[in-house]
């Protein structure tokens, strides 16, 4: 067994501009398995090799310290760090709804209406200048997940959206201690979920009740779903538009495919999505280059062997999804945008965990299936109707703000396009 390489034990993560960029440099210097110190003095082992990751795929615990920042949203224990025995039934309940085709189909018309509303707004203001795609698309995905998780019977969806934004900026942004305004906003959100609970108004809440979750745990779960769902799905779409705006030949292929599959229709039906193969490949290639959740973590409960390395029980394993996606051993010319990497033939040549935007194993994202449906629908509606161009001189710098986010938004010039253009 070899000693795990790594820098001297002193965290220089902040100096690197954040964990997402630190990881890229760490693995470039020390290879695919490296130890480093997380802010707060916790030592972790980071694994950027997809084959070695297989040995960790069954690990079913997360380190508490790294998820403490979510505590203000949790009355009944933090869902992200629940012990495996409690987490399993919750995961099954979530998957029974979030991963089910029936549920995706049932919400498709409502999602289409929300996406079309945004497209109408962009069409109206196109002449006035570029759109702030990241801001608008995050808000759209928050509206979608509210509709999904809370059902259609909410009196004031705009108030729910703004209360959630307040809670996020204050508590999770760490800007200030929870103040009166944010406490009121959180209490309001819990009341809304209680109303849905009492009225049985969403299939998600119904599935959680059926799994015997306490009302407090249902509230926590719904808030956590709103958090996990909206920024991630929003930025997956805005990064894809960003990349397509800079690769006109790929954008033209997406447009031709949409014209062929949709004809004169402005939006796809659920069944059309599986025919939008180049759109799907472009979205995946964008999530490879800009994974919305750039890293994850586990805590080992028994000793593991990763190639030449011994990992004792109780180790924090760090999953650097971004570094895995840019690993040159599996992705030649890793920074280039090449959607054809995701043809079935090309995918079959790569190890299973070379592309892991939704994580891996028993703690992977339960919303992956729903997220792909939402993102593909929104992209189809927008790219059927518009051509997107970058704004010269506007810098697009990935930073971390819960998700991999563009620091000053992604400004795009929008022009309506006719079929065949
Ligand atoms: C493009 C959109 C999305 C991306 C890229 C994404 C990515 C991720 C990642 C990387 C994780 C951590 C996985 C790990 O540690 O292995 C995660 C966890 C999670 N995600 Fe997503 N996610 C997305 C959308 C959603 C949506 C739409 C929902 C729900 C409707 C959702 C619900 C969750 C939940 C509940 C967890 C915690 C998993 C657990 O601890 O059991 N996500 N997601």
Provide a descriptive summary of the structure in words.
The strands form four sheets. This protein has a four-stranded mixed beta sheet. Strands 3-11-8 form a three-stranded antiparallel beta sheet. It contains 14 helices and eleven strands. The mean pLDDT is 92. 42% of the residues are buried. Helix 3 packs antiparallel against helix 8, helix 4 packs parallel to helix 14 and helix 5 packs across helix 6. The protein is α+β, with helices and mostly antiparallel strands and 421 residues long. The chain has a single domain, classed as Cytochrome p450. The structure holds protoporphyrin IX containing FE.
- According to CATH, the fold-level topology is Cytochrome p450
N-end to C-end Cα span? 59 Å
What share of the residues lie within helices? 40-55%
List unreliable stretches of 5+ residues. Answer: none
- Tell me about the largest β-sheet: 4 strands, mixed
Please indicate the percent range of residues in DSSP E strands (runs of 2 or more). Answer: 5-15%
Shape: globular
Bound molecules: protoporphyrin IX containing FE
InterPro entries: Cyt_P450 (IPR001128), Cyt_P450_E_grp-I (IPR002401), Cyt_P450_sf (IPR036396), Cytochrome_P450_monoxygenase (IPR050121)
Pfam families: p450
Family: Belongs to the cytochrome P450 family.
Organism: Nonomuraea insulae
Indicate the topology.
Layout: H1 19-30, E1 33-37, E2 43-47, H2 50-53, H3 84-98, H4 101-125, E3 131-132, H5 133-150, H6 157-172, H7 180-199, H8 203-210, H9 215-245, H10 248-262, H11 277-289, E4 296-299, E5 304-306, E6 309-311, E7 316-319, H12 321-325, H13 344-348, H14 368-385, E8 386-390, E9 398-401, E10 403-406, E11 411-416
Parallel strand pairs: 2-7
Antiparallel strand pairs: 1-2, 3-11, 4-7, 5-6, 8-11, 9-10
């Amino acid at each position: 067994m070899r000693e795990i390489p790594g820098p001297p034990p002193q965290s220089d993560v902040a100096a690197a501009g954040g964990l997402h960029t630190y990881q890229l440099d760490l693995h470039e210097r020390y290879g695919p398995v490296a130890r480093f110190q997380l802010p707060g003095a916790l030592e972790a082992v980071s694994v950027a090799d997809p084959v070695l990751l297989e040995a960790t795929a069954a690990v079913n615990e997360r380190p508490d310290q790294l998820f403490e920042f979510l505590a203000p949203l949790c009355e009944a224990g933090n869902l992200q760090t629940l012990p495996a025995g409690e987490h399993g039934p919750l995961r099954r309940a979530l998957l029974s709804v979030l991963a089910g085709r029936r549920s995706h189909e049932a919400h498709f018309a409502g999602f289409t209406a929300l996406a079309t509303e945004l497209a109408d707004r962009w069409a109206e203001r196109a002449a006035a200048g570029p759109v702030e795609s990241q801001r608008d698309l995050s808000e759209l995905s928050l509206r979608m997940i509210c509709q999904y998780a809370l059902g259609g019977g909410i009196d004031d969806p705009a108030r729910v959206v703004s209360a959630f934004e307040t809670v996020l900026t204050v508590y999770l942004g760490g800007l200030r201690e929870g103040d009166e305004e944010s406490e009121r906003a959180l209490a309001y959100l819990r009341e809304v979920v209680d109303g849905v609970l009492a009225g049985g108004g969403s299939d998600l809440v119904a599935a959680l009740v059926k799994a015997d979750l306490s009302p407090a745990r249902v509230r926590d779960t719904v808030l956590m779903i709103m958090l996990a769902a909206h920024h991630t799905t929003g930025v997956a779409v805005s990064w894809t538009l960003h990349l397509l705006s800079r690769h006109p030949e790929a954008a033209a292929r997406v447009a031709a495919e949409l014209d062929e599959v949709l004809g004169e229709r402005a939006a796809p039906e659920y069944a059309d999505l599986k025919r939008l193969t180049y759109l799907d490949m472009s979205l995946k290639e964008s999530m490879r280059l800009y994974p919305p959740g750039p890293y994850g973590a586990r805590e080992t409960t028994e000793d593991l062997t990763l190639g030449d390395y011994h990992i004792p029980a109780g180790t924090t394993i760090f999953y650097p999804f971004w570094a895995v996606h840019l690993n040159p051993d599996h992705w030649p010319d890793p920074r280039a945008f090449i959607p054809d990497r995701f043809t079935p033939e090309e995918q079959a040549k790569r190890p299973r965990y070379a592309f892991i935007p939704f994580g891996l194993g028993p703690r992977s994202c339960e919303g992956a299936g729903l997220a792909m449906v939402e993102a593909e629908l929104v992209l189809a509606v927008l790219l059927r109707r518009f051509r997107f161009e970058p704004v010269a001189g506007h810098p697009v710098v990935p930073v971390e703000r819960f998700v991999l986010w563009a620091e000053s938004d992604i400004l795009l010039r929008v022009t309506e396009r006719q079929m065949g253009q």
